[in-house]
Design a protein that fits this description.
The protein is built from 14 helices and 19 strands. It is α+β, with helices and mostly antiparallel strands and 437 residues long. It folds into 4 domains: 3-82, 2-Layer Sandwich (Uridine Diphospho-n-acetylenolpyruvylglucosamine Reductase, domain 2), CATH 3.30.43; 89-207, Uridine Diphospho-n-acetylenolpyruvylglucosamine Reductase, domain 3; 211-306, 2-Layer Sandwich (Alpha-Beta Plaits), CATH 3.30.70; 316-401, Alpha-Beta Plaits (2-Layer Sandwich), CATH 3.30.70. Helix 1 runs antiparallel to helix 2. 45% of the residues are buried.
C-alpha cells in the first residue's frame, strides 16, 4: 500500500475506499480510476480535494451515476469521489417552502419526504428516482416539468461548495455577499463539477396542486402537433407540461398511438380549473386534427417518467443521444432533420421535445454510429436553424473524435477564465467540459 493510499484511507476509512482492480465498474469512458473514495461529510470532501491538489490527482465527482457518460472523455481519472453518503436532510421548513439537503440525497427520497406535507420539488430529469441533488445541479438536467417551473437553476437558493483546493464556500440563502464576488449557486449549475464540488444545497419547494390531469393526443404530423402547442402556449391556460413525442415512442410508453406524432399535456390546479382547462385543451387539439388517446393501464406519473427516460441509451455502443436547442417555432423542423438522418442510415429514432423552452431530445439506435460525419451534418443543419446540438451519449469509439458540446462561441472565453480561477491546476473533471476544459 502506497503512502497516498494510506492517506486516502485515513480520510474516509478503509471500508469507504476502493482501489484497483476493484474500481473497473467505475470507469469513465473506458478509463478506470485508481481509487474510489466515498466521503461521509463535507470535511472529508474538503480533505480529499486538498490531498488531490497536493498530489496533482485528476478528480471525477460522481452522484447517482445517471449521467456518468456525459461530457468529453477525461484526460485523466485518478480519484472518483462518490458523494452518495452525503444523504442527509439538513433543514426543512414546510411553511418557508424551502429545503436544505446534502448533495447525495436522491430525488426519489426527497419526493417522499415532501409528499407528506403536500409539497414537491419540480425536478424530473431522466432516471429521476436515482438522480442526486448534486448531480442534477452539476448537469442542469431537466424533464417535462421544466415547461412550468424551469430547471434547477430557477429553484436553487443556496449552495455549499468545496473548491479544487479543498476550500469551502457558501453562496446564496442568507449569505448576502460571498467572497468570490460571483453568484455562487448559479455558477455551478451545469458546470459538470468542473469548478468545485457541491456538497449541500437549498432548494425552493412548491405546493402540490389540488388536482392534476394528463391528456395525450395523436397528431397527424409533427407540424400539426407544434401548431396545436403554439396555440396552447398563446392561450391563458396554465400548463405544467407540454411535450411533443413521436408516435412509436408513445406506443412503447403504453399509449397506443397509430399517428406519426403525439402531444402530451399536463395541467395542475384546483379541480374546477383543471376540468375547464381540459376542455379547452381538447378543443384546440381536435381542431388541429388530434385524436385523444388513453393512458390505458399506465398511470400519469409512470407515463411522464417514461417521457423523461424515452431517449436514454438502451445499448450504449448502438446508441447516440442528442440534445438540440432551437426556437420553439422550429422544433418540427428539428424533428424532420432527425427523421431524415435516421431514415438515410437505417436507424431507429426516439424523440421528445419540451415545447415551451425549445429543447429537443433524441436517440438514434443502430449500426454505424461511430461515424462522426453524422453528428457533423446534424450540427450544421441545426446551426442553419439558429440552434445548437449537444451529444449526451455516444459510442466509445466516437467520443474522442468530436467535442460533444460543440462550439459555444464567445462564452468559451468566459468559461476558460472561470476554470483558471477556480481550478487553476485543471484537476476537476479534466477535459470533460466545453472546449475540453
Amino acid at each position: 500500500m502506497t503512502a497516498l493510499e494510506t492517506a486516502l484511507r485515513g480520510i474516509v476509512g478503509s471500508e469507504h475506499l476502493l482501489s484497483e482492480p476493484a474500481t473497473t465498474t467505475w470507469s469513465v469512458d473506458g478509463r478506470s480510476p485508481r481509487w474510489v473514495a466515498a466521503p461521509g461529510t463535507e470535511e472529508e470532501v474538503s480533505r480529499l480535494l486538498a490531498l488531490a491538489a497536493a498530489e496533482r490527482l485528476a478528480v471525477i465527482p460522481v452522484g447517482g451515476r445517471t449521467k456518468l457518460g456525459w461530457g468529453n472523455p477525461p484526460r485523466g481519472v485518478d480519484l472518483v469521489i462518490d458523494l452518495r453518503r452525503l444523504d442527509r436532510l439538513v433543514e426543512y421548513e414546510p411553511g418557508d417552502l424551502t429545503v436544505t439537503l446534502e448533495a447525495g440525497v436522491r430525488l426519489g427520497a426527497l419526493a417522499r419526504v415532501l409528499e407528506r406535507h403536500g409539497q414537491f420539488v419540480p425536478l424530473d430529469p431522466p432516471l429521476a428516482s436515482r438522480a442526486t441533488v448534486g448531480g442534477v445541479i452539476a448537469t442542469n438536467a431537466s424533464g417535462p416539468w421544466r415547461h412550468r417551473y424551469g430547471t434547477v437553476r430557477d429553484l436553487l437558493l443556496g449552495v455549499t461548495v468545496v473548491g479544487a483546493d479543498g476550500t469551502v464556500t457558501k453562496g446564496g440563502g442568507r449569505v448576502v455577499k460571498n467572497v468570490t464576488g460571483y453568484d455562487v449557486p448559479k455558477l455551478h449549475v451545469g458546470a459538470l463539477g468542473s469548478l468545485g464540488i457541491v456538497t449541500a444545497a437549498t432548494l425552493r419547494v412548491h405546493p402540490r396542486p389540488a388536482a392534476e390531469a394528463t391528456w395525450v393526443f395523436g397528431m397527424p404530423s409533427p407540424e400539426a402537433a407544434l401548431e396545436a402547442a403554439l396555440r396552447l402556449l398563446d392561450s391563458p391556460l396554465l400548463l405544467q407540461r407540454l411535450e411533443l413525442v413521436d408516435g412509436p415512442t408513445l406506443t412503447r410508453l403504453g399509449v397506443g398511438c397509430p399517428h406519426p406524432a403525439g402531444l402530451a399535456v399536463g395541467i395542475g390546479s384546483v379541480p374546477e380549473a383543471v376540468r375547464a382547462q381540459g376542455e379547452a385543451v381538447h378543443a384546440v387539439c381536435r381542431e388541429g386534427g388530434g385524436v385523444a388517446l388513453g393512458l390505458a393501464g399506465t398511470g400519469a406519473a409512470a407515463f411522464w417518467a417514461g417521457v423523461s427516460d424515452a431517449t436514454l441509451p438502451e445499448e450504449p455502443e448502438r446508441s447516440l443521444t442528442l440534445r438540440v436547442g432551437l426556437l420553439g417555432t422550429d422544433l418540427a423542423k428539428g424533428f424532420r432533420l432527425l427523421e431524415s438522418a435516421a431514415h438515410e442510415r437505417g436507424l431507429a429514432l426516439a424523440a421528445t421535445a419540451t415545447l415551451g423552452v425549445g429543447t429537443l431530445r433524441a436517440r438514434l439506435a443502430g449500426e454505424g454510429l461511430a461515424d462522426e460525419r453524422l453528428v457533423v451534418r446534424l450540427r450544421e443543419a441545426v446551426a442553419g436553424l439558429g440552434g445548437a446540438l449537444v451529444v449526451e451519449h455516444a459510442p466509445a469509439a466516437l467520443k474522442p473524435r468530436l467535442d460533444v458540446w460543440g462550439d459555444v462561441g464567445p462564452a468559451f472565453g468566459v468559461m476558460r477564465r472561470l476554470k483558471a480561477e477556480f481550478d487553476p491546476l485543471g484537476l476537476l473533471n479534466p477535459g470533460r467540459f466545453v472546449g475540453r476544459l
